[in-house]
Amino acid sequence: MWKWFHQLASPPHFYRIAPIFSAVLLLPGLALIAYGVYAGLFLAPMDYQQGDAFRIIYVHVPSAYLSMMAYMIMAVAGGIGLIWRMKLAHAVAASAAPLGAWFTFLALATGSIWGRPMWGTWWEWADPRMMSELILLFFYFGYMALRAAIDDTAKADKASAVLALVGVVNVIIVHYSVEWWSSLHQGQTIMAKDGPAMDPGMLYPLLANIFGFTLLFGSLLLRRTRTEVLFRERRTRWVKEMILAPEGQS
Amino acid sequence: MTDSERHMPSMMSGLTAVARRDLLLAWKRPGDVLNPLFFFAMVCTLFPLAVGPSAEQLTFSGPGVLWVAALLAMLISLNSLFISDFDDGSLEQLLVSPQPLPLVGLGKTISHWLTSGLPLVLVSPIVAITYRMQSDVVLVLMLTLTLGTISLSLLGSIGAALTVGLHRGTALLSLLILPLSMPVLIIGANTVSLAAGNETYSAGIWALAAYAVGTLSLAPYATAAALRISNE
Description:
The structure holds two protein chains of two kinds.
Chain A: H1 2-9, H2 11-43, H3 57-84, H4 87-119, H5 128-149, H6 153-184, H7 200-232, H8 237-244
Helix pairs in contact in A: 2-7, 3-4, 3-6, 3-7, 4-5, 4-7, 5-6
Chain B: H1 3-7, H2 13-28, H3 30-51, H4 55-78, H5 80-87, H6 90-96, H7 101-130, H8 135-162, H9 169-196, H10 202-230
Helix pairs in contact in B: 2-7, 3-4, 3-7, 4-7, 4-8, 4-9, 7-8, 7-10, 8-9, 8-10, 9-10
């Protein structure tokens, strides 16, 4: 078990096996998304209140969930890199940040588009989820800005890992404080008491999309990490040997 | 007690020495302390000019404006927390000293709060009265600012430590610290608003106190780790 773990952490080994794992995640991910999108757009019944507009949920919810998941992965990977000095973990954290920021942006954009027909406004300041999602986006920006500002990669890795860990504690506090804050402003959230009661025809495509998006995210993360590893190891011998090796031998 | 034990410096001596030295430095250079205060007063002057001077407008927006201005003033003063020590090399001496680094950093943060947070708390009533705030609300404002600026100083020390050796640090520091400081702003400003509206506000005070205690116990370790990383 530990041997396998150590082997995985070695950059050349990871570089070789990452495409396999990436493909293994990608195919079922795309299949699930294809089913989720088709069933969500065509088969799922219309919502009796929201009509067809609710269908944006099939992109919105998976994105919002992944925006938080990516932050957790980033922070945990940063922590692992900081504690066990695992180089690969830092590469994972560096690759997770832009993906997470994009999913956060996607969640905000779809939420905003959804809010236009439902609430009659593109942006609702009083909605706690929109606010904490926006602050999460700022956290991502801060994280990436800190990484970009430090030239030395090893130093950037450690500094941004500290920031991600501090942020992870704070993201939770931000979430609750925003909720408390919005409870002071009354009666703005129309969709507050929806309840989990959802038609199975609506629910299954959503679940399929959540799993599909997660698999897609995993696959993309592996691909990005692979490129990141290649870039970071560009001066090492194994990269030179691999590149100089004749076709078909690598 | 043996002789060597008696001469062993205590664990807190690094903290007190650093805090005393920084306070002395601030005393010799009062501009560093006064500039954020002028900035605070000026931001508070901008708002009535921009949104209009009517009495109900001012009482309505007062708590928020004062809190945002205080947050920005704290942010401005944070820049200089470690920078001069980094430039003249004394920060490295602090890093290699046998004193525990979290406590040394805490000493610097305490002196930072005494020269930036505390003056803001003391000046805030003057501005608050011009915003037509009732005297009991002013007391709530001072209490929330006291607890809030403690948290802001401690959170800010993490950001200042992370960005200490970097060029273009100012904008980056704001980008790192502002998201972290949002809970303080939300709870602080809204607690004052609740007090101004004659509603119960004690929950906000407790939340701010809890946040201050939490950052006081955790932030020094993050600051120490960040200082070590920045000075590698």
